[in-house]
Amino acid sequence: MKIAQIAPLWERVPPFRYGGIELIVSLLTDELVRRGHYVTLFASGDSVTTANLKSVHDQALRLDPNIKEPGLYEQMMLCDVYRNAHRFDIIHSHVGCAALPYSDFSKTPTVHTMHGIFTPDNEKMFRHFAWQPFISISEAQREPRLGLNYIHTVYNGIDTSAYPFQSTPTQPAYLAFVGRLSPEKGPLEAIKIARATGLPLKMAGKIDAVDRAFYQEQLESQIDGEQIQYLGEVSHEQKVALLAGASVTLFPINWREPFGLVMIESMAAGTPVIGMGLGSVPEVIAHGKTGFVCHSLEKIIEAIPAAIKLDRQTCRDYVMSHFSVKSMTDEYEKAFQMVLS
Length: 341
Fold this sequence. Notes:
The chain has helices at about 20-35, 70-85, 100-105, 120-130, 185-195, 210-220, 235-245, 260-270, 280-285, 295-310, 310-320, 325-340; strands at about 1-5, 40, 50-55, 90-95, 110-115, 135, 150-155, 175-180, 200-205, 230, 250, 275, 290-295. The strands form two sheets. It has a seven-stranded parallel beta sheet, sandwiched between helices. The protein has a six-stranded parallel beta sheet with strand order 10-9-8-11-12-13, sandwiched between helices. The chain folds into two domains: about 1-155 and about 325-340, Rossmann fold; about 160-320, Rossmann fold (3-Layer(aba) Sandwich). The relative contact order is 0.13. Helix 3 links the parallel strand 4 and strand 5. By secondary structure, the chain is of the alpha/beta class.
C-alpha cells in the first residue's frame, strides 16, 4: 500500500523532547515501512525516518526564530501532499482540521486521526466536512453532537523496548509528574498532592509561552528544589529514568485528555499511575491493577499507599498487550482497509 503520512511541522519526527503526536507518527510510519508499505512522510526536514521524507522547511518550526507565520508552511506542505495525491492509495492526516478542505478535492481518500480537542472555532470546520473518515484515539475523545464519521478508535502505542522495566522504585520514594506545565495538565494539583502526602515530587515538562504567566504566578514560588523539584524539559532518557524510578506517577488533569501518553510510558517502565477520571483516563488505566482512577484530589491522596503496593510487572505486561506499536499499527491497517473498501 502507498501511504502518505502528514505530520505537524512544529516539532521534528520523532520529537527532540516533548511531542506526543510526533512520537506516534514516527513509530507508526517506521512500523508501516517495516511491514512492506511504501510510505512518504510529510514533516519537518530534520525528521528521522525510514520512510521517504518530504518537507517544505529544513527544521522544526519551533526551532526557527525567523518563523512568524507557521500556518503558511502548513499550507505549503498540504499543497505538496495533494498535488501528489494520485501517487498514493491513502493519505493519513495528523494535523487536525487543516487537511479537511484539501482532501475534499482529492480522489485519493484521506483519513484523519484526531489527536487534539475540539474548540468553538474548529468545530465549524469539522461539521462542514463531517462525512470524511475520522479516527479517534479514545472513545472519550469523540463528540457525538458533531456527527463526525468516526470509522475506528485506535489507541496510541509505544515502543516498549525504549522504556526499560524497573522492578522496584528508587529510594527514597518520590512522586513523578511529566507533562506541559499548563493548568489543564494539573501541575498545581500535583504539588498539592505531594504536600499532603509529604512525599517528594519530581516534575518535568516544557513551559509554552501561553503558560508562562501561570508558571510564574502559581507554580514557581512553590518549587523549592527540595520536596518540589522542577527538572525542566527533559530528554527521552531522562524522562524514562524519572518515570521508572518513581513510586507513583500523578496524572491529575483538569480537562478531557484525548489520550495521555505519559500514562502508558509510566506503566511500561513499571510505575503505576493515579489519574483524575476525566477524558481517556478510565480507558488507559486498569483500575486497581495498574493504578487508580479517582474523581477528586482527596481520593488521589488516599489511593497513593495502595498504588505503591501494586505489582509493577502487571503494569508492564498491561502496556505490552494493549498499547504496543504492533497493536496500534494493526488497528491502523484495519482502518485503512475500511476506508479503501
